[in-house]
TrEMBL record:
<feature type="domain" description="Peripheral subunit-binding (PSBD)">
    <location>
        <begin position="125"/>
        <end position="162"/>
    </location>
</feature>
<dbReference type="Pfam" id="PF02817">
    <property type="entry name" value="E3_binding"/>
</dbReference>
<dbReference type="Pfam" id="PF00364">
    <property type="entry name" value="Biotin_lipoyl"/>
</dbReference>
<feature type="domain" description="Lipoyl-binding">
    <location>
        <begin position="1"/>
        <end position="76"/>
    </location>
</feature>
<feature type="compositionally biased region" description="Low complexity">
    <location>
        <begin position="100"/>
        <end position="122"/>
    </location>
</feature>
<dbReference type="InterPro" id="IPR050743">
    <property type="entry name" value="2-oxoacid_DH_E2_comp"/>
</dbReference>
<keyword id="KW-0808">Transferase</keyword>
<dbReference type="InterPro" id="IPR003016">
    <property type="entry name" value="2-oxoA_DH_lipoyl-BS"/>
</dbReference>
<protein>
    <recommendedName>
        <fullName>Dihydrolipoamide acetyltransferase component of pyruvate dehydrogenase complex</fullName>
        <ecNumber>2.3.1.-</ecNumber>
    </recommendedName>
</protein>
<dbReference type="InterPro" id="IPR000089">
    <property type="entry name" value="Biotin_lipoyl"/>
</dbReference>
<dbReference type="InterPro" id="IPR001078">
    <property type="entry name" value="2-oxoacid_DH_actylTfrase"/>
</dbReference>
<feature type="region of interest" description="Disordered">
    <location>
        <begin position="162"/>
        <end position="183"/>
    </location>
</feature>
<keyword id="KW-0012">Acyltransferase</keyword>
<comment type="similarity">
    <text>Belongs to the 2-oxoacid dehydrogenase family.</text>
</comment>
<dbReference type="Pfam" id="PF00198">
    <property type="entry name" value="2-oxoacid_dh"/>
</dbReference>
<dbReference type="InterPro" id="IPR011053">
    <property type="entry name" value="Single_hybrid_motif"/>
</dbReference>
<keyword id="KW-0450">Lipoyl</keyword>
Length: 405
């Protein structure tokens, strides 16, 4: 048997609350399948399972606060016999599913409401953000038709149902109002992680000002004949340059744990995202060194959307080997970042601005930006950090190397 345990979804996380199970005993699960929703200080997270098999039993109950590392469920790998099967006992698939804890939220009247298309096997398929918004509006989600995958109820479905109930015309979905105390809890989580970083990690900082005229010219030419919805934004080029520079300097891509450096297996970049209600998350953009331009733009857009709708996945909060923060759109000239433990480096970008630049012996106006590196001195030294920044500069000043044909 394999034990599925509460994952660590951040350096500061000690426990999480199991909000909802998406599986039942006897059901088959596949690697990467979202099996439950866990509430942390940074929001509700969709948690994936990383082993295929059959659910033997659920150990934790919905609503239970579970410490990191504690068992949530037991999963029977393929080919392994069920508990008690050899002595003729019923298997979990033959036993009736246990009745879950009673909900304290709005309930469906016994015979009045028509079951939603999102209801399967007596369970409501609804995203965490949609469930929270429904509770805030006092809306019973069981009567809402879902437009998501498999008929699941999305945040937009809840907003649409609420507008319909109030007799309003369709309008863009409103941002869910955060629960009382959510922002304070997130600030505490950020404070704990950053205090640990500055206490334990001996930071060193390097910076470089680079001319990005070539990269912007490449971007403008790429976007010239494309519809607005399909155009790239400059951060896509920045992320790609960081990813390729990490391939050349892999010592900056990984984690410092148990007094040793553990290199990351892939190039998964944490993208710092400021949330509209306050706070910050840095989910991973997976395989940033392998994505084509359009695929990276789509992945980045999807990540931003789900981060702000409280729909991130557990793998996106644990995979990043380095974080990138970009404050240029807020007018910041340069960024001297704090490393997110147990990562060993952070890259910061400031705003693009016209500056005096020497080209071919002449002073010209050129669009430039400042790139910075914060790195862990326990793992690398300044010479290696400088090599990384030089590689990053070369890639953004020779953009044809970002996606060679």
């Amino acid at each position: 048997m394999s034990e599925f345990r509460m994952p660590s979804l951040g350096a500061d996380m000690e426990s999480g609350t199991l909000v909802e199970w998406n599986i039942r005993p006897g059901e088959r699960v596949e690697r990467g399948q979202i099996v439950c929703v866990v509430e942390t200080q940074k929001g509700a997270i969709d948690v994936e399972v990383w082993e295929a098999g059959t659910v033997e039993r659920l150990v934790a109950e919905e609503g239970q606060k579970v410490p990191v590392g504690e068992v949530l469920a037991v999963i029977r790998p393929e080919g392994e016999k069920a508990e008690g099967e050899e002595i003729g006992q019923e298997t979990p698939a033959e036993r009736p599913a246990p009745e879950g804890p009673r909900s304290t939220g709005p309930t469906t009247p016994p015979a009045a409401a028509t079951p939603s298309l999102a209801t399967t096997g007596g369970r409501l398929r609804i995203s965490p953000a949609a469930r929270k918004r429904a509770a805030e509006l006092g809306l019973d989600p069981a009567g809402v038709s879902g437009s998501g995958a498999g008929g699941s109820i999305t945040l937009e479905d809840i907003e649409r149902a609420a507008r319909s109930a109030e007799g309003e015309q369709a309008a863009p979905s409103a941002r869910p109002v955060p629960k009382a105390g959510t922002h304070a809890a997130m600030r505490q989580a950020i404070a704990a992680a950053m205090a640990r970083s500055k206490r334990e990690i001996p930071h060193y900082y390097l910076g470089n000002t680079l001319c990005v005229e070539p990269a912007l010219a490449w971007l403008e030419a790429h976007n010239a004949q494309r519809p607005v919805a399909e155009r790239l934004i400059f951060p896509v080029l920045q992320l790609r340059a960081v990813a390729l520079a990490l391939e050349a300097v892999p010592a900056l891509n990984g984690w410092y744990r148990d007094d040793t450096f553990q290199p990351a297996e892939g190039v998964h970049l944490g993208v710092a995202i400021a949330l509209r209600g306050g706070g910050l998350v840095a989910p991973a953009l997976h395989d940033a060194d392998r994505l084509a331009p359009d695929a990276m733009m789509a992945a980045l857009r999807d990540l931003l959307t789900r981060a702000r709708e409280d729909r991130l996945r557990s793998s996106e909060l644990t995979a990043a080997g380095l974080t990138v923060t970009n404050l240029g759109d807020l007018g910041v000239e340069s960024v001297q970042g704090v490393i997110y433990p147990p990562q060993v480096a952070l890259v910061g970008f400031g705003r693009i601005a016209e500056r005096a630049w020497v080209r071919d012996g002449k002073v010209v106006a050129a669009r430039c930006l400042h790139a910075s590196l914060a790195a862990d001195h326990r793992v690398t030294d300044g010479a290696l950090g400088a090599s990384f920044l030089t590689r990053l500069t070369d890639l953004l000043t020779e953009p044809e190397r970002l996606w060679p044909s």
